[in-house]
Structures are given as C-alpha cells and as structure tokens.
Write a structure and sequence with these properties.
The chain is an alpha/beta fold. It folds into 2 domains: about 5-215, Spore Coat Polysaccharide Biosynthesis Protein SpsA, Chain A, CATH 3.90.550.10; about 225-295, no CATH class. It contains 11 helices and 10 strands. Strands 1, 2, 3, 4, 5, 6, 7, 8, 9 and 10 form a 10-stranded mixed β-sheet that branches. The longest helix has 18 residues, at about 260-275.
Length: about 300
C-alpha cells in the first residue's frame, strides 16, 4: 500500500436514490496515482447495501465495503474510514453528492511537493442545476490564519464542511483528530477546526470540483432545531482552543463576528419554519447563547 496516495471515505446510509451517481463519479476519476474508495455502510435498510456490494464486486482493487447492521451515525462512519485508510491523504465524500472527473487530480496537483497538509477546492450547489458555492476564495497560509479568516470573513467563505478537501492522514493520526461521535449535525466544524489548528500550511482554490446536493429529504432538512447544535459546536471549538492558544482564543472568540451571526440568523430562519414561531424570537434567545460562548463581557452591537 506504500504507493497508495488517496483514501476516499464515503459514509453510506439510506441513499439508494443518489448512490450510483456518487460512486460512478468516484470510480471514473482521471487521476494517475493509486487511490481507494472506502464505503462505510452502517445501518442502511434500503438498496444502498446492495449497490455497495455491486461496486465492491465490480471494482475489487478499488472499492472496499464495510457493512454493519446498526446505524452508528455519520461521525462514527468517518472515524472508521480514518482508521482503515491506507492512503497518504484522505478525502470525504457525502454519498448523496458527486464530483467532477478531475476531483482527485485537481486536489492532488497541490499535494505532490508535500507543501500542504490541507487542500480545499471550490464546489457547486446542486439541486436541479448547478450554481457556484460560497467558498470562491483563493488563499494559502498557516492553518491558524485560515481559522481566523473562517471566523471573521463574511459568509464563512473558508467553509466548515469536511468534504471537498484532501487532508494528510498523518495530520489526523499524529494529532489524534477524529469526529465527535455524539455529533451528527455540524460535526464537520470541530473536526475541520482541529485540522486547521494543527496544519502548518493549507491552501484553498476557487475551481469548483464538488457537487453539493441540496436535498429536501435529507436528515438536516428534517431537523427542527438548527440553532442549538450549531452553538454547541462553537462551544466545543472554544473548549478545544482555550487551553492551547490563549492569544488565538481571544481573537476568535472576543465576539461573534458577522459570519457567525449571519449563519445563526439563517439557522433561526430555517428552524422557525418548522417550530411555528418567529425567527426574531429564536434569534433573541440565540444571541444570549452566543454571548455565553464568546466573551461574556461583550455585547452584540448594532442588533
């Protein structure tokens, strides 16, 4: 396995409608270097397992299928993938999404000189047609500088999703970075936060290579409370950072910057639809929670 460059980790759960398109896009990559696809299939009761079996049988040197009857959640699935990965780098793909043919080669083109530990490409938002996503920023620098831009730039352009990136596997294993098993909403955020904190060099490029499918039937769309889990992951990032880096903690958590507040506003808007209440009432409560996470002595101005 010494020459295996990339492990593609795909959590699978109840995605029979989309899985073939996802896997077809992965087995047809144009990259010359060797890669593997790890399908972590936990608890599926639809045809997803049958589809996984078919691809593992058809591509035995490329696809590995790990099947469990119980659904342990997406975080646990990704952690199993990290444990089993043989590549120098890992990338995460959501099984209802798909990628361009040059997805892996575009990312790996920045990895050849071992300069970067995290490499992130652009993406499309995809429903019935594609449109560019919000992370259209090009940037390279220390991981901690990326974190500061992530928290302070408008609309979280340095996005918090785990997909659409190459991450050096040694970065995860050497620093014991895993997904929090008890999180299945916004679980990407604490994970990527830790990755960037430990990374010496990261790069973002604009080219869209990933298709992020916007589903009306997704688990997230069916959730009524978006606000509480979002504030919880903010709290966890601060709890991780505070004992390690006092200066950066002061910078990131002195106040909830525009990007954070706008995201929480969006959460309140989405939750209000399902909870039969007003988004302004939800946001009034959320502001208090935000202040409890950020500097207790700061107040949100201009609200």
């Amino acid at each position: 396995m010494a020459d295996l460059m990339i492990s593609v980790i795909v959590p699978v759960y109840q995605v029979e409608k989309y899985l073939n398109e996802c896997l077809d896009s992965l087995v047809k990559q144009d990259i010359k270097e060797r890669y593997e696809i790890l399908l972590i299939d936990f608890g599926s009761t639809d045809s997803s397992s049958k589809i996984c079996h078919e691809y593992a049988f058809k591509y035995p040197n490329l696809v590995t299928w790990i099947k469990k009857d119980e659904n342990y959640g997406v975080s646990a699935s990704r952690n199993v993938g990290i444990s089993l990965a043989n590549g120098k780098y890992v990338t995460f793909i959501d099984s209802d999404d798909f990628v361009r043919k040059d997805y892996l080669s575009s990312l790996f083109s920045y990895a050849k000189d071992d300069k970067y530990e995290i490499i992130t490409g652009g993406y499309y938002l995809y429903k019935k047609k594609k449109r560019p996503g919000y992370s259209r920023t090009s940037y390279q620098g220390e991981g901690i500088s990326c974190l500061k831009k992530l928290y302070q730039s408008p609309f979280l352009k340095f996005r918090t999703f785990c997909w659409g990136r190459l991450i050096r596997l040694s970065l995860l294993r050497d620093n014991h970075i895993r997904f929090d098993d008890d999180l299945n909403q916004y679980e990407d955020w604490p994970f990527i936060f830790k990755c960037l904190y430990f990374a010496k060099k990261a790069i973002y490029f604009k080219k869209p290579i990933y298709y992020y499918r916007q589903r009306t039937d997704s688990v997230m769309k069916g959730t009524s409370d978006f606000v509480t889990p979002h504030i919880e992951v903010l709290r966890r990032t601060k709890e991780f950072l505070a004992p390690r880096d006092e200066k950066s903690t002061r910078i990131l958590f002195d106040k909830p910057h525009f990007a954070i507040k706008s995201q929480i506003r969006f959460d309140c808007h989405e939750s209000a639809k399902k909870l039969d209440t007003s988004s302004s009432l939800l946001y009034k409560k959320a502001k208090k929670e935000l202040i409890s996470v950020f500097d207790q002595n700061k107040v949100l101005k201009g609200e």
